[in-house]
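Let's practice the habit of predicting before peeking. Look at the sequence and jot down your guess about where helices and strands might fall. Then scroll down.
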Amino acid sequence: MATTYETLRADIIIAMKARDSATATILRTADAAIQRASMDLDKDIDDPLVITTLRKSVKNMKDANTEFAKGGRDDLIAANDSEIALLSKYLPQEIEGAKLEALVDKALAETGAQTRKEMGKVIGALKKSPEADLINFGSASKLIQSKLN
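Done guessing? Here is the structure:
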């Protein structure tokens, strides 16, 4: 089975052959970000690196959309939303709801954390779990805070 990065590279070629310059540009930009992250971290390109880089890009675009909404720039929001939709197809589905709550409860039990000062221990335990790359740590953090004093 092809890696996420191989799939992305193949889709760049498909977009170029189809003369879909918008898609090709978005995917090339993502490819450049992945290669830059690989060089910065002095690490080979693998699925965790690709997923982390793409998640960071999507998060930055969502944050930018918040600012664009304040400025009334619906055109930029629409452009970002289409880019987010395109990049999201390369990302695995994040753990949400009851499954996320079960992982948080397990991490709380393992660490014995009682107060918000011990939140770092819980996050650390979650990062060591096998499902760590599927966890949205922003959501997990809010959930942990709601469970700690």
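How did you do? The chain has a mean pLDDT of 89.
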